[in-house]
Design a protein that fits this description.
The chain has 254 residues and is mainly beta. It folds into two domains: 133 residues, Sandwich (Jelly Rolls); 105 residues, no CATH class. The chain is 4% helix and 35% strand. It has two helices and 16 strands. The strands form six sheets. The protein has a five-stranded antiparallel β-sheet, with no helix packed on it. Strands 4-3-9 form a three-stranded antiparallel β-sheet, with no helix packed on it. A two-stranded antiparallel ribbon has the order 1-8. A hairpin with a 2-residue loop joins strand 5 and strand 6.
Amino acid sequence: TLKQYGDFEMYVDWNLDPLGHDADAGIYLRGTPQVQIWDIARVNAGAQVGSGGLYNNQINSSKPIKLADNKLGEWNTFYIKMTDDRVTVKLNDELVVDNVILENYWDRTQPIFPIEQIELQAHGSKVYYRNIYVKELERPKPFELSAQEKKEGYRILFDGTNMHQWTGNMKDYRTENGCISLYPSNGHGGNLYTKDEFGDFVFRFEFQLTPGANNGLGIRTPMEGDAAYEGMELQILDNDAPMYSDLQLYQFHG
């Protein structure tokens, strides 16, 4: 595309030439590969998993959830949504990628570009594209430090647009409206860790509780074990919830 895009939704139809050889194509998002398109008969290349996966991911999921491709030579439809650094893909109305981080293929030490072009890619044989629609989505402005904060030596661990400086449960912890939100898939959210380790520090952050929430901030905690016990936990708790009516003094919020 001539224009660059940040957060967006798009539709695109695609069709692989049934007479082609080693059909392989894809949709680059923000100038980065790619939402995969290929002939599922190419078992030697791993294509039997189907199209729609984030093929070039190394840490986060690279394969589609399910096989949803139509027969070779038939038209397929992608719905692709990109918000912050995460991608959702539906292939022929079937969810194949669910809010997965797209990694920066060009420099894996950095997060995905905040804005870049959408690209249609092909190699191996012909691929046909049609009915391409895109809708831009409003996105939060990245958080920036003030001049005084920079002077005092602060650094940003989360700017509201990506979680590149974090590791751990990257499935249930998500960027949403400029925040890190937790949607525990098994009733227990697990832990999110900074990639870097810290000794003595000043840490500033904002948080918002939901009713009955029980969270915490682990300090100097190792990557293994329960962060609340292996390290030190500062409790983040809805004290007023009926379920916490018998708390000990040391268990209250803060």
